Amino acid sequence: MSDTITSSDTLDHHEPHAKGLGRWLFTTNHKDIGTLYLIFSFVMLFIGGGMAFVIRAELFQPGLQFIQPEFFNQMTTMHGLIMVFGVVMPAFVGLANWMVPLMIGAPDMALPRMNNWSFWIMPFAFTMLLSSLFMDGGGPNFGWTFYAPLSTTYAPPSTTFFIFGVHLMGLSSIMGAINIITTVLNMRAPGMTLMKMPMFVWTWLITAFLLIAVMPVLAGCVTMMLMDIHFGTSFFNAAGGGDPVMFQHVFWFFGHPEVYIMILPAFGVVSQIIPAFARKKLFGYHSMVYATASIAILSFIVWAHHMFTVGLPAAAELFFMYSTMLIAVPTGVKVFNWVSTMFKGSMTFEAPMLFSVAFVVLFTIGGLSGLMLSIAPADFQYHDTYFVVAHFHYVLVPGAIFGIIAATYFWIPKWSGYMYNEGLAKVHFWLSFIGLNLTFFPMHFLGLAGMPRRIPDYALQFADFNMITSLGAFLFGTTQLLFLYIVIQCARGKGEPAPQKPWEGAEGLEWTVPSPAPLHTFEQPPKVD
Ligand code: HEM
Ligand SMILES: [Cu+2]
User: Which segments constitute the Cytochrome oxidase subunit I profile domain (predicted)?
Assistant: First the structure.
């Protein structure tokens, strides 16, 4: 090699890229793969949302109207599985793919071929999972938590496909996480020290470690199920000397960190957006980083707060009660910092900010109901009622989902090169805000009054609140069609061309590249001071 390599040589090496289907199938470009993840997540949102429609239509009135209890159980199971593994997680990975390299000044992800693979596993996994609904005996019907022995001794034959699907999703998540950690640790631009990284990058780095730690536990859990079903073991079978309660320990050792996997990147998004629209620096950046890390570490020692009623020793009840309450401290630090960032800022309320402010307020409601649930003796009353359903929907819908929507409005000018329609986006916000509170707030009352979760029929005294809840759900669901329309308009280039930095107060390397971001950015690393 005698010639010097110029930057245009390296450019030629990549370009021209494949066109049509080939471009998407074989792409190793972080932006293309980010787009694929986001589209996949959007499609799954409407499939999982359709299932929620079926559930709420059945629960609109007491009595059985439309579907049989067996099918109802499949709907609640699939709704949960799809929303968790098919919507929230892929959307976050999509955002990471698009934004992490742009935010740290890297030309791409560190492991681009693995990146392609980790995406393309997902459509196969979910096609298989969904196809189980059409198999003999129906699809999985044991809830998204798939407690044994419901998911082993009494499970439908399609459970084997469910297990394979979970293995594939886990593989995809682990590869995605390895990619993000490698990228963040090795490919930052000169001068971009860890403590200068944008909060979104920090939250994703910590989330990726959580993923690597707990996805193998989930894989072990479903593998033990597989052994119990087909190979005569008795991990979870009391008759053979096993223990169904051990299933719950293993599942929640994965499951609780998993709920933080679904919220930490949203914390990151909001920590980018609030400073931009308050036109102030993020208040308490360092404490934000440490709070995120504390939440992640604590999330490993609280899992049995999902199991207060299985008959734990009193000492264990107390340990898990207090460790759970401890999480409120770093969470409180974060909320305090967001509010302090807004304090005396010169704020404007474009769509990303509206969704972020709603995030702070409504996520806090979910945090407070979580605190109520963490009181072990009180949880004996709330456990397995609609109060739990209210709690986790308040952290997941105005939490994770609003975080994803806010991120989309914030960064879509950079992705597409066009501004979204602000007027329509405001309508989208207010209808979503009203719809989701109508849907999930009455669930608190239903739960306190004793309505159990996961039932297709209920006692008459629950009728009024259920009707309100169903109407709210229909409003929230149909409103997301408006979101789809707004996003498609942008993607098709209908709208104002976006400037390089559409948000006056925004900071960061992603705003130093043109809109739309060209396929290759930062081939020469930027200098960060
Ligand atoms: C502020 C901190 C939080 C506390 C103290 C807390 C506490 C709890 C407790 C004690 C339960 C079990 C209730 C029961 O089954 O009887 C629970 C359930 C749940 N929480 Fe939280 N939580 C918090 C934040 C979150 C976050 C941030 C998420 C997700 C983004 C989340 C998602 C869930 C889910 C999905 C369930 C129900 C799982 C199921 O049984 O299907 N929680 N929470
Ligand atoms: Cu938990």
Answer: 24-529
Q: Is 173 a catalytic residue?
A: yes
Ligand 1 atom 43, closest CA = 370
Structure tokens at 494: 């209908």
- The answer to whether the beta carbons of residues 181 and 209 sit under 8 Å apart is yes
| Beta-ladder partners of 418 | 497
Ligand 1 proximity of 413 Cβ (cutoff 6 Å): no
427 close to 486: Cβ distance less than 8 angstroms: no
User: Catalytic: which of 305, 414, 444, 501?
Assistant: 305
CA distance to 102, 210, 257, 396, 400, per residue, from 262 (Å): 22, 11, 9, 8, 6
Classify residue 468 as exposed, middle or buried by CB count within 10 Å of its CB (0-12, 13-18, 19+): middle
State yes or no: is 331 an active-site residue.
yes
Token output for 191: 């001068």
Closest CA to 346 of 282, 272, 283, 278: 278
pLDDT digits (tens, 9 = 90+) for 331-360: 999 999 999 999 999 999 999 999 999 999
The active-site residue, picked from 118, 173, 341, 470, is 173
> Which residue from 291, 289, 224 is spatially nearest to 254, judged by alpha carbons?
224
CA 51 – CA 54 distance, rounded (Å): 5
Task: Read off the pLDDT of residues 474-520 as tens digits, 9 standing for 90 and up.
Answer: 999 999 999 999 999 999 999 999 999 999 999 999 999 999 999 99
Spatial distance between the Cα atoms of 348 and 345, rounded to a whole number of angstroms: 9
Are 326 and 376 in contact by the 8 Å Cβ rule? The answer is no
Q: What is the CA radius of gyration of the chain?
A: 23
Structure token digits, residue 412: 């879509």
